[in-house]
What we know:
By secondary structure, this protein is an all-alpha fold. The protein has helices at about 10-20, 25-35, 45-50. The protein has a domain at about 10-35.
Amino acid sequence: MPLFWKPYTSDVTQFIDELKKKKPSLESEQLAGRALLWDKDIDRRAQTEARASQVPQQPYVYQTKR
C-alpha cells in the first residue's frame, strides 16, 4: 500500500457531496417533499371498507362467464 493512499470515492458520491455543499438545504427540502406525498396517516376504517368492497377476480381474466 502506498504511503499517500487515499480511500476511493466514486464519481456519484463526489457529485452528491458537492451538491450538498452548494445547497445545504437540500436534505430538508427532500424530507418536506416526502412528507407531502408519502408520510400520511392511514385511515384504517376506510382501508377496511375498501378491502371489503373488492370484487374477486376470475382465474383467467379474459375468459367470459357462461
